[in-house]
Design goal:
This protein has 127 residues and is an all-beta fold. It is built from no helices and eleven strands.
């Protein structure tokens, strides 16, 4: 069982930045393909960004392209989401998720492709 721990959420003003981290709780576990999702009350959970296991392939939802960057740390246990130029519509609970072992060059954009989920971290952007 892989447990994911998210950190880095908080409250920022419009145009500010936050860096979310998703870490495997066990030091012996490396993350496979990882995705960041977000959910706003009353709406379905949506994909924000995804990255392949080897880290060379990435996906961004249109509204976050250029502003967000997903990346993998060298320890292979941590994936981050750098969020810049934040907007009020980015306010949501953000979740990271990891797949079971898969092709190293593939990312996934559907939540049903992911097996392990973090507990979520709140991001609030206000004026």
């Amino acid at each position: 069982q892989v447990q994911l721990v998210e950190s880095g959420g908080g409250s920022v003003q419009i145009g500010g930045s936050l860096r979310l981290s998703c870490e495997a709780s066990s030091p012996t576990v490396t993350l496979n393909a990882v995705g960041w999702f977000r959910r706003v009350p009353g709406k379905e959970r949506e994909i924000v960004a995804a990255i392949s296991q080897r880290g060379r392939e990435a996906y961004y939802e249109d509204s976050v392209k250029v502003r967000f960057t997903i990346g993998r740390a060298n320890d292979k246990r941590t994936v981050y989401l750098q969020m810049d130029a934040l907007k009020p519509e980015d306010t949501a609970v953000y979740y990271c998720a990891s797949t079971a072992p898969s092709f190293p060059y593939t990312y996934f954009t559907r939540d049903r492709d992911y097996e392990y989920w973090g507990q979520g971290t709140q991001v609030t952007v206000s004026s």
